[in-house]
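Exercise: predict the fold of this chain.
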Amino acid sequence: MFEDLKWLVDLQKLDNEIYQLTSEERNMDSHISRMKHEIEEMAIKRVKLIRRQRELQEDKDNYDADILDHRRILDQKQIDLDNDKKTKKEHIKREVKKLEKAVEVFEERVSEFSIEIESIILEIATIDKNILKIEKIIRSENKKKLEIEKSTRTNLEKLLKKKDQIEKLVRIPFLNHYNRIMKIRNGIAITFVTEEGLCNGCKIHIPYQLQQKIKLKDDYNICEGCGRILVDIEMLAPPKAEKKAAAVPEKKELPKEEIKPEVKIAAAKPKKKSQPEPVKTITEPKAKAKPVTKAIPKPKPEPKPKTKTAAKPVKKAVPEQKPKPKATKKKK
């Protein structure tokens, strides 16, 4: 059973490679089919416009015939008016006015029909131009498609031969199930279980017991949700030899290009320092800058003028009271 799973995994990898090779061709086919569908829609629209044009032309021709008949009758009525023998001239005048109004209405309708017919003719011409442009694009796309087919033909033949060889090794019931799931599930028949315990195809939860069976790789396990074959991730991962072969050239190429310019810059730096001229230019501004920082005298506090003391509140001088003279007793 393990061998069948191994061959089926190899089949899935081969089908993925074939899908990648034929992806450009399929994109070209879808693009060409879309353009053909546009041409079909434009052709249907063109047929409808032609029908409408014919209907309008028939109506216009009928109105033209009616105008000719009304004008012939008007001419006859004018002759009757000119004849003096006729006694019912007022009745004839009324009929002439009605006929003139009818002719005016018919001429307006004819002008409307002619304008609409001209617009339809222009629209048909634009549709024809667009169809020609799209047909040219389709031819160029077909040429590109043939070139791609020629370039990928040899690789496709090799892959198809390998696929036939592997299909002979797989047992028929497993192979039929694989092919049926490939058609139903967009070319992915084998998936793995994620770390969260979900099917990577349909995101349904896989029971723990089934997860343990899948890790053993000795049974044919199927997802209950989507019907895909469940396999351990290690079986779908590319082999270690391919990973190393892809990683080694990247490590060797990058440092060679980056080291060389750094060495040149390091050798060029001491040459600039050995020149005496730039040293003088660097030291001179430093000597000039020293007195600027030191010779900044701090402003001394100015002596406060005496007038400022007057601003303080001064106590008013109270006049000293003279001591009253003591009363002297008169001697008797």
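Check your answer against the key: The chain has two domains: 2-170, 176-268.
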